[in-house]
Write a structure and sequence with these properties.
alpha/beta, Endonuclease, Chain A, 52% helix, 2 domains, 6 strands
Length: 332
Amino acid sequence: MPARPLGANSKLVTARRTLGLHSQAGFADAFEEHALAMGMRLAVSVRQVRRWESADPPYPTPDYRRVLEDLFGRPLSALGFTASDEAGEEQMSQAWHTFITEGPERLHRLMRLESGTATVRCFQTMFIPGQLQTADYALAIILMHDPTLSMVEARERQQLRMERAHRLFRGGRPAWFVITESALYQPVGSPEILAEQLDHLVQVISEHPHVRVQILPPGARFMASTPCLILEPKRGRYAAWLEQFAGSLLIDRPDDVEHFGATFDRLHTSALSQMASQSAIADWRQELRGSIEFSANLVGSRPATPEMTIASKLRSSALPWASGTAKYPDPQ
């Protein structure tokens, strides 16, 4: 049987096969394991391996260069990489933004990172964080983000999310979540699915003292526009995981991660206390369930929706901006 043709970057392909790595997926796994042995939390996707083995491979960032040279025992020039003054900075920047793009692979890589982390800190803007989701809520989110998925693919991703949640509760590692209040009102799947999700959230707070949940209200002193997950792979060493529209970004340079840590600190100090947050979740859950029951009893009338009850909640005198106890803007 004739040998398969080498990729355009024949030096790297030859080095990979010499090391016994006969697939690009095997190369990606070996890279992550070797980086871990060197004390670094780095990983690459199969797509990134393909780019490295292409005719014009992007020049790796310093940490990735160290792992590649140590893994193969050769200088980067012997692996087919050539530094370019014109493209160097741009390629190094792109390397961070092409970390992982395939959906299931992203979840597997994230779960590997989480498996050894000492602490978890998470800020979420639109939805309940993945580790706190119910199965039905997770499935609704997955199909909302990518309606082209088959039900088999969606169920696979749903199962991975549920495994992440089980690990969080079994491991007992400290986990801190700051969630914007709008996530409590975001209708996902159906009002019943959202109500069950809120039931679950209250139960998690009550039964798992190592899990801390705070709600960030509208008009808080500090806000952030994008969600972020901060992990602690080693004591005192942190990494930030950012979900992008077309992929995920892992940042582990100390100076960069420190910025995200400072942002999280400002968010949690601007949020409601855990006790006040639990009360806010329980109150909205009760109001939502009341609207569901009211809708079920209506005959020939327009049923109440989460949007309708949200509007009434925002007008409620129980909220600080309605009672005059805080200078929050009027909701639109």
